[in-house]
Design a protein that fits this description.
Helix content is 33%, strand content 28%. It has 289 residues and is an alpha+beta fold. The protein folds into 2 domains: 155 residues, Ribosomal Protein S5, domain 2; 117 residues, GHMP kinase, C-terminal domain (Alpha-Beta Plaits). Strands 1, 2, 3, 4, 5 and 6 form a 6-stranded mixed β-sheet that branches. A 4-stranded antiparallel β-sheet has the order 8-9-7-10. 43% of the residues are buried.
Amino acid sequence: MIARAYAKINWYLKILGKMNTGYHDLEMIMQHIDLYDELQINKTTNTDLTLEINSTAKFVADDNNLIIKAAKLMLNAGKTTAGLHIRLTKRIPIGAGLGGGSADAAAMMHALNHLFLLNYPLDKLQSLGIKIGADIPYCLEQRPAIVKGVGESIQPLHFAQEHWIVLLKPEKSLSTKEVFLNYNKKIDTRHYSLQDSIIAIENKDFINLNKYCGNSLEPPAIYLLPEIEKLKRELIDHGALFSQMSGAGSAVFGVFESIDVAKIAWSHLNIKHQTCILTRTLSKATAIL
């Protein structure tokens, strides 16, 4: 079985406060993009779980890997003892704020739900997925969505418009924990509006997109890694009408008026940057084709 694990971007990320648990209370708009890892999953004759990773990046295929965690979670939930060999083809940059690890885990859950005929509905998968990763409930969702809390509350949206984007990532990644620790409400001065942002995204209204969208984690991330601000500026200088960091970074994305403008920007930026990706937003991302 083949499953696709789609990356995501954060159009909007606002920190509302801190919960009693110590986690931050978030309000976000997330959407999948046409950039994906691929999982090839085969049953084996023993009960072992093996993970083979095809990537230039360094990975550890042990019990702390989210794919293995997701596989065990689904096998235990379904009371299944089958063995699996999993081959991961990695395309989503790691440490980028694009949800690559969570997307891989979500794709694994969808695949095993299908492979073993468990027939769990989406909300059941999401309630299982939150146990191993905050972004997994959204990564299990096919459509754009409003995501709240620590990631457990999902409200799907319907964006018919397609946006062409260019992704840039600094060579250095950031620790999500460190970015959150450096968040300071006093310097988070953007004028956020969830509903106005949704309307702006749907209508390709770049004036209001710049006015109402934002990412509360950008200031602390830029403090830790100033190159993020430089990459945002480069995207704007090459024609992007909106530019923002995704998640806790360190990748940034620029949104362009058309594929033609995006291609020209990509052709110039790709010469200079090691990680430069031309892609588009998706109105629906299906893991099992």
